[in-house]
Protein 1
Amino acid sequence: METDVDGIVERLNEADGQGLATAGAVLTIDLGAVRENYRRLKARLGGTRCAGVVKADGYGLGAAVIARALQKEGCDSFFVANASEGIDLRAALGTGPAIHVLNGLPPGAEGEAAAAGLIPVANSTDQLAAWRATARRLGRKLPVAVQVDSGMSRLGMPPVEVEAVAADAEAFTGLDLVLVMSHLACADEPDHAANRAQLAAFERLRRLLPAAPASLANSSGIFLGPEWHFDLARPGAALYGINPTPDADNPMHPVVRLEAKVIQARTIGAGVGIGYGHTAIADGPLRVATISLGYADGWRRRAAAFAHFKDVRLPFIGRVSMDSIILDVSDLPEGSLKAGDMVEMIGPSQTLDEVARYSGTIAYEVLTSLGHRFHRRYLGA
Ligand SMILES: *Cc1c(COP(=O)(O)O)cnc(C)c1O
């Protein structure tokens, strides 16, 4: 157990009124598993360095705590999406680790980003020019990463801009180009033709720029093979236990467990309507239990999933409410489930990827949607 981290988090939970006794649900985050996943990715990467992507508050699990756990594995390079996230992460980690801002800087954010020692990813010649002007104004050299668009059309300099930068002898005046990167659109589909096309485009575009370390692979990109690894990999999802190889068994260790408390359990009579809209009607006497987790906790209203108690599968019945879900508990021995018992929502009986499937979405969205009124428990760093 990592007492410093656990202590901090326990205190935060209690201060928020989200102590174990009073919270409706408990989210357990296994930092030991995050570290194990980092080691598994490192092993696959050989000599390639491995960063940690901790945008969106570490995919909802706590950017600062996750980053500190990764630092213990030697990770000294992090990626966030927005400058505001970078500033928070810098405050948590102190000086030292590299913090890259994937979206680059919105106009006007350059001063604060420079003060926090962030590395913006310049996605356009405009972003690059604004950062160059900031370096001139501050009278010191600033680090910069450049993203080239190798074929996703989301972020990064299109080939014509890369060529313009290549032709401009002053493009990097006052700047230190520390990384050239791009992002894969279809890395989770290993046979997709876009993977090799993007690889070729990235090879060509990066050669137009001054020599710098290169980065292309996200989690799934790491599993495409060594050609996609370059100097630095940028996994997020796989660190958090999401399967980076959706067509095969999950090579990662699960990180999250979500349990919800039973509020009440009872038997309802035949013909009685269940939940909002009476979308279900009991066709005979039916044993039900209501748990304190709902769509306000990020559990999709339309998700037709299950809860589990001692490995027994308990189907949802009726609609998911804001703060509660009704379960059909007929398959449990009578009286075995009581108020205060915890049922598993995400864990060994029902994986994160399965919950995503039941919810009609991807595990990334399930994780980043998880709400803010759980009691959070961090295990084993
Ligand atoms: C989110 C993101 C990553 C991490 O992707 P995962 O699929 O979560 O590993 C890497 N690079 C960029 C540019 C991203 O936006």
Note: The chain has two domains: 32-240, 256-350.
Protein 2
Amino acid sequence: MITEELIRLTERHSAHNYHPLPVVLATGEGAWVTDVEGKRYLDCLAGYSSLNFGHRHPAIIAAARDQLDRLTLTSRAFHHDRFAEFVTALAGLCGKDMVLPMNTGAEAVETAIKVARKWGYEVKGVAKDQANIIVMENNFHGRTTTIVGFSSDPDAYGGFGPFTPGFRVVKYGSADAIREAIDENTVAVLLEPIQGEAGVYVPPDGYLTAVREICSANRVLFIADEIQSGLGRTGRTFACDHEGVVPDLYLLGKALGGGVIPVSAVAADAEVLGVLKPGQHGSTFGGNPVACAVAIAVIGLLKTGEYQARARELGAFLHERLRELAETRTRHGRPAITAVRGRGLWAGIDIDPELGTGRRICEALMRRGVLAKDTHGSTIRLAPPLVVSKDDLAWAIEQLDHVLQEL
Ligand SMILES: *Cc1c(COP(=O)(O)O)cnc(C)c1O
């Protein structure tokens, strides 16, 4: 069988830093993918929200194709003719003066850390090398050494020290914890408006508003990592929009690349991003013509509001159905689901660990044609592309129901 052979070669010749489900995908369109044996699956992970617009969205592919035929890379040593349009469009979407394009999410986070520190020294007046940044327990911001150094997940940081100093970890969801940790050397609070990798944890109502107030009152930058929560997933352009909160820096990635190439960015006002002068930060591939063309198409799709509306409507349906499932007793006499969290078309579902692991459930879902991913043992994440049809979504939830009944 071709699947087994490809997996065997993968295991022999690629590092084992992932444990993929045993499926080998070959093609994709919209919310659906097909494996090398011709079996179809509904993609309920969507590349951790990199595929918010589905696989090969026609407008995004057309933009990429067109750009491939014209100019693909210049480096930032020269201007290219798609750059101005991209930065203007993204700054407009974010309501900020400026953007700084990078490639991966982790690079956007690293960029924000550097910018916040430099802003602290040059604008706020923090003493040399004394800046601290407040971060959250159970955060996920990427895989660089600096970033994993303030992770609370032993898998993420174990064995990779020594780490970059200057971070204070506090409890997520507690404004008081931030108030207690802040001092005159604090330059930023960095958080995910919804913690995705942790298991789709939505903070208490009013938390983001309180963080905004605390940051403003203490002259501290509010950095919102919207790499996974942003660009339509939660039913609004940004997860911060649900509280009408505007952070000082937006960090974007994942869906910004339209499911085609890595595109990330930091968006902020000139007082903040203006601290960077030529030579002080950069990226060979950041803001390349193909990245710009793809991101311009993505921003165009978001401007219609259609995808945010789909995420709201389909998300309401998803959460209503999941609540019903969470009340349904299985043959063990109790519900298999112990908690459901999330917002928009994004859900974290905790399964009673006595009934089965998240991995086992995802494997069973796979056999039924639904691709999803477990996290932290017994949580399953659902985040289908925003283009998924209501019927397909209903069908996927039915498959979950069957799998839970069979536990
Ligand atoms: C995925 C993710 C990142 C890291 O993005 P990469 O492109 O994998 O480097 C950072 N922050 C959040 C919230 C993410 O979900």
Note: Residues 48, 104-106, 109, 140-142, 192, 196-197, 225, 227-228, 253-254 surround pyridoxal-5'-phosphate (CB under 6 Å).
